[in-house]
């Protein structure tokens, strides 16, 4: 393993396989590498005395054609700095990165990328149509093809109704959609998205999730950073988790997440205080939710004993739910842990 403390699920740099993508994941696993990052570092000089701050400390990962790759980490972990180095906006201090086999920065590689920054800047006096058209022209599109592509992107991201409204009158979510349409207008092979769900309401988030899945189904590769773990778990084939500038976890979600039942929740109605106290004395968690009681059992071995005791005590069993490890559990266990193991 090339990074101390990093979990690497699977063989080689990163193992293929997806959370829910089936054949698409297998295709991605066998595909070519579009992004290759080896020992990438970035140090900034800050303050009057030029104090050195290491934002990225030797990051390694690969992204393969046709997959959705999630890039996660707490605020300040180095995600956006890494993306800026990949897209050529800033230069690395050390290490190397390759896009489509070309060393970064590469003008040729940039032409094959669509990029949505975390806070896209759109000229306030332009309309979404004008801004997307401008981005299309910068990508080499012109004439009827540009007009058609612009209209298609406005419809795709759901802002066709506001296409000719000045950007300064748009909401944060609509600005985000405008930036996403601009990233897609050139029909890029690789889509790099920095916090694409930022500013979106729940309906907008679902629409963007569906759009990302649709783009992957069409053969596009998506690399995106986010702090919304449920979106990553629902969409991504593989992930890398950063902490303090280092990758601490990377690999296929299905291999990273534990398959064992970590906890079983038994929901009861009509449970007496005496019954609840007995469960607590046995070491189970007990919490009240509305007019029901939820008994939290570690693992699943004692579920039968709890059910028998509940029925004998006159309670009604409403639900028994096994809880397996989620991406949030993994994130809290590894990305925010102060005591990462040095080997896995």
From TrEMBL:
Q: Which InterPro entries match?
A: AAA+_ATPase, ABC_transporter-like_ATP-bd, P-loop_NTPase
GO MF term list: ATP binding; ATP hydrolysis activity
Q: Which family does the UniProt entry place this protein in? A: Belongs to the ABC transporter superfamily.
Q: Where is the composition biased (Gly residues)?
A: 8-20
Please report a single Pfam family linked to this protein. ABC_tran
Instruction: Supply the SUPFAM superfamilies for this chain.
Output: P-loop containing nucleoside triphosphate hydrolases (SSF52540)
Q: Where is this region: Disordered?
A: 1-24
- Record key words, sorted: ATP-binding, Nucleotide-binding, Transport
In this protein, which residues make up the domain named ABC transporter? 35-269
Q: What is this protein called?
A: ABC transporter ATP-binding protein
